[in-house]
Amino acid sequence: MANDSMLKFVGREQSYPAKRTADERQEDFREIAQRYAVQPAEEQAGRCSQCGVPYCSVHCPLHNHIPDWLRLTAEGRLREAYELSNATSTMPEICGRICPQDRLCEGNCVIEFTGHGAVTIGSVEKFITDTAWENGWVEPLVPGKSRGQSVGVIGAGPAGLTAAEYLRGHGYDVHVYDRYDRAGGLLTYGIPGFKLEKPIVMRRVERLKAAGIVFHEGFAVGDDASLDDLRQRHDAILIATGVYKARAMDLPGGGSNGVVAALDFLVASNRKGFGDAVPAFDDGSLNAEGKDVVVIGGGDTAMDCVRTAIRQGAKSVKCLYRRDRANMPGSQREVANAEEEGVEFVWLSGPQSFDGGDTVSSVKVRKMRLGAPDASGRRAPEPDPAGDYSVNADLVIKALGFDAEDLPTLFATPELGVSRWGTVLVDGKTLMTSLDGVFAAGDIVRGASLVVWAIRDGRDVAATMHKWLKTKAANAKVAA
């Protein structure tokens, strides 16, 4: 039944899984898209043109074997498709949900360039692995033969979890330390359920726990133990903390009640979803219900905030962004979803002050225009002489991105080398930091980035750590 099932893109139109109506979506935090049934998934996979040089794979940070598992899906060989998808990714069903495919694989699909519409790669990827979970094809992680060495992983986000999985497979004792009471990092607490329902993350974590990976949750390195303490306990350390420090916005009124950081807002919402007690949500501080909400920023975190505010029952939700729609960094699909749900985007607008005294009641906004390109090549926003105006706001959410925390101070390890941005410096080949046996990966090295890059970094650092640990064991044997 080989390739007669493929190359159907001319006569078969692109079709994504149906989305629930905007009215339905506003009522809950469930994912907005339905999942493919088997036949539509096979049909959409069959649109792939099986390129000789698959740009989709080239532009995927994990270099997933996309055309191959699309072909297997089109041929009805779903278990094989899952196994091939799983061979390069520790979390394919998560990437299928939250990767910005329009900027990566689908955005570089050859048939997209011909005007036929990209293959719906992300939706098929999600379908394959969800089907695998339902059918029991996702096998337990089997630890390798014990090597008698242990690794400490600081941070239970996608980079840390990925490295932990590979290192456990190599036979190391793996301990994961995380400040939160649940593993998953931003997958658990930063990304809303309408993009990634939490049981999907938790089942991945449970699979790692079942393999003997030890999770120390609610463990803050620096408070509960220093980095040096952990170095004494383990043969190697991986720093995979991510970047959590909200980027500063120094404007008049920035300290007023009602002006909050994006992550505080999103964590509170996700905790409510878990059924936790969240006093700052219950007293209204981090709850958008009945409020005029203004979100500042144009990235994916801003999109998460505006859509969360809608679901919490906000009176109105506006998103201020200093560039125009074409120049925003967030996913265009997310913008479209937000607009469907009732968010108003105010392009070419920058905040000047937060007014109202102790508690914010409005935002003074300056109109912007795009000037000459800046160092990044994007046209830089500059004030528009057209003037300023005000918008009502009971809750202002700052979503300007994230910077690295001061890890040398936090970990009581001043000799840890960091860049001027606070990201941890590593050797380009070994991914080791300035400290012997201490490695780093993910956003804490590259800066705020995508989950798929964190998974790639976790995979890469596990390989270099494995090589270093084998050498360390061999040297110890010789010395003995």
Describe the structure.
This protein has 480 residues and is of the alpha/beta class. The chain has 19 helices and 15 strands. A 5-stranded parallel β-sheet has the order 3-2-1-4-15, sandwiched between helices. A 5-stranded parallel β-sheet has the order 6-13-7-8-9. Strand 1, helix 9 and strand 2 form a beta-alpha-beta unit. Helix 2 packs across helix 8, helix 6 runs antiparallel to helix 8 and helix 13 crosses helix 15. It is globular and about 75 Å long. The termini are far apart. The mean pLDDT is 95.
Essential attributes:
480 residues, alpha/beta, five-stranded parallel sheet, 19 helices, 15 strands
Q: Outline the low-pLDDT stretches.
A: none
- Strand runs, count: 15
Q: Helix proportion of residues, in percent?
A: 25-40%
State the shape: globular
**Helix/strand/pairing class, anyone?**
alpha/beta
| Tally of DSSP helical segments | 19
Average pLDDT value? 95
In what range is the share of β-strand residues? Answer: 15-25%
Strand order of the largest sheet: 3-2-1-4-15
Largest sheet: 5 strands, parallel
User: CA-to-CA gap between the ends?
Assistant: 59 Å
Q: Radius of gyration over alpha carbons?
A: 23 Å
